[in-house]
C-alpha cells in the first residue's frame, strides 16, 4: 500500500522594519517600534501593479487605491466590483454597499473609493491620537505613526513625576505610563503598566477642569499601586500588616469616587489616615502614603511636624516610616 503524501508547509517569512529590524505586520503604515514609515510595494511581482501616487501594491482590477484613496481607474479596471482579485484576500463586503470585497486593513474601498472602518479586536487598546488598535508594548502607532502610549500628551506631568521620584531617591522599577480610555489604574497581572484616563487630557471638559498638578498627583497615586504590586513581598511582613492592614481583602472602592490628587497638605479628618480616600482600602492607603511621600520629596521631618499640628495618630507616622525605610533598603542604605 502506497504511503500517503504529506503536503509540505512553507513557513511565512517574518516581516521586519528596514531600520530597527523589529517585527511588523503586512500593510502597517509605520513601524510600531521606531515609527519609520513603511512602503509595501509589489517586490514579489504578485499583481504587477502599484499605485501611481503612494507606490503601494494594488490590482489592475481596482478602480481606487485602497491605501491612499486616489482614483486609479484605467482600461484594465473591472467594470463590476470583484470579491478578491489576485494578490488580495476577501475579509468582508464594502460597508457602503457597492458589492465589492475588501481586505483588512484597507483604508478605502478599492471599488468605490470610500473610507472603510475596521474593528481592532486583536489589539489590547486604542491609540490616543487616531483611536485605532495598538498594543501596550508599542512605542509608535502602526496606523498614524504618533506616540502609541500617549506620553507626548502628558510630557509636562511626566517630567514632574520623574523629577520628584529622583529627588525622593526612589529607584526606578521600569514602569510604563499609558494614556488609555476607561479608568485610571494598575492591575496585579501587569504591575509595571500604569494606565491614565485619556479624557483628562483629550476631552475638552476634563482638560479645562484638571490641572497639571492634579494629573501629576494622579500619576503618582497610580505609581504607588505599581510600586506596591512590584514589591509585593513587603505585604507579607508583620510591620506592613500592622501599619496598613491586609491588602488582599476584597476591593469594593467605587471608580467614580472623586479624589483631590492636587492636594499637597494633610487632611485634618480621620487621624489614622493621611486622606479620607486612604481609608477606603489598604491598597489605597499605601498609594496615598506613597503619593505624599514623593510629593513632599521624602522629607519626613517636615511631614511629621505637620502631622503633629493636625493631630494625626501614631499609625500615620508608622506608615511613612515604613515607606521611608523600605525606599532606603532598595538603595542598599540599610
Topology (elements, then pairings):
Blueprint: E1 92-93, E2 101-102, E3 125-126, E4 133-134, H1 155-167, E5 176-180, E6 185-187, E7 190-197, H2 199-202, H3 204-209, H4 212-230, H5 238-244, H6 282-295, H7 300-309, H8 314-330
Parallel strand pairs: 5-7
Antiparallel strand pairs: 1-2, 3-4, 6-7
Helix pairs in contact: 1-4, 4-6, 5-8, 6-8
- Using only C-alpha atoms, the radius of gyration works out to 27 Å
Describe the global form.
Answer: elongated
- Spans of at least 5 consecutive residues with low confidence: 7-11
Structural class: alpha+beta
**Count of the domains:** 2
Encode the helix/strand succession as letters. EEEEHEEEHHHHHHH
Measured as a percent range, the helix fraction is 25-40%
Report strand %.
5-15%
Distance between the termini: 77 Å
Work out the number of β strands: 7
Oligomeric state as shown: single chain
Mean pLDDT: 90
Major sheet details = 3 strands, mixed
**Helical stretch tally:** 8
As laid out across the biggest beta sheet, the strand order is 5-7-6
Amino acid at each position: 500500500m502506497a504511503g500517503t503524501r504529506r503536503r509540505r508547509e512553507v513557513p511565512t517569512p517574518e516581516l521586519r522594519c528596514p531600520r530597527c529590524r523589529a517585527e511588523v505586520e503586512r500593510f502597517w503604515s509605520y513601524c510600531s517600534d521606531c515609527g519609520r514609515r513603511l512602503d509595501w510595494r509589489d517586490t514579489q511581482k504578485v499583481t504587477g501593479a502599484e499605485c501611481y501616487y503612494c507606490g503601494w501594491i494594488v490590482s489592475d482590477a481596482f478602480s481606487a487605491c485602497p491605501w491612499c484613496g486616489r482614483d486609479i481607474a484605467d482600461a484594465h479596471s473591472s467594470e463590476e466590483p470583484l470579491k478578491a482579485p489576485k494578490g488580495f484576500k476577501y475579509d468582508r463586503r464594502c460597508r457602503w454597499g457597492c458589492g465589492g470585497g475588501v481586505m483588512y486593513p484597507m483604508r478605502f474601498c478599492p471599488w468605490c473609493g470610500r473610507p472603510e472602518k475596521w474593528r481592532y479586536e486583536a489589539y489590547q487598546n486604542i491609540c490616543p491620537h487616531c483611536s485605532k488598535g495598538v498594543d501596550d508594548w508599542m512605542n509608535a502607532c502602526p496606523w498614524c505613526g504618533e506616540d502609541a502610549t500617549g506620553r507626548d500628551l502628558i510630557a509636562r506631568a511626566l517630567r514632574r513625576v520623574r523629577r520628584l521620584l529622583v529627588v525622593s531617591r526612589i529607584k526606578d522599577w521600569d514602569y510604563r505610563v499609558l494614556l488609555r480610555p476607561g479608568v485610571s489604574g494598575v492591575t496585579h497581572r501587569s504591575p509595571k503598566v500604569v494606565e491614565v484616563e485619556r479624557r483628562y487630557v483629550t476631552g475638552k471638559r476634563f482638560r479645562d477642569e484638571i490641572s497639571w498638578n492634579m494629573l501629576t498627583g494622579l500619576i503618582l497615586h497610580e505609581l504607588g499601586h505599581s510600586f506596591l504590586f512590584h514589591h509585593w513581598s513587603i505585604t507579607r511582613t508583620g510591620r506592613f500588616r500592622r501599619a496598613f492592614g491586609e491588602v488582599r481583602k476584597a476591593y469594593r472602592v467605587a471608580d467614580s469616587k472623586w479624589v483631590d490628587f492636587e492636594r499637597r497638605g494633610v487632611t485634618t479628618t480621620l487621624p489614622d489616615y493621611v486622606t479620607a480616600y486612604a481609608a477606603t482600602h489598604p491598597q489605597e492607603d499605601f498609594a496615598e502614603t506613597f503619593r505624599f511621600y514623593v510629593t513632599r520629596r521624602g522629607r519626613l521631618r517636615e511631614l511629621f511636624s505637620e502631622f503633629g499640628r493636625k493631630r494625626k495618630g501614631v499609625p500615620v507616622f508608622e506608615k511613612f516610616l515604613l515607606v521611608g525605610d523600605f525606599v532606603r533598603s532598595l538603595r542598599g542604605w540599610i
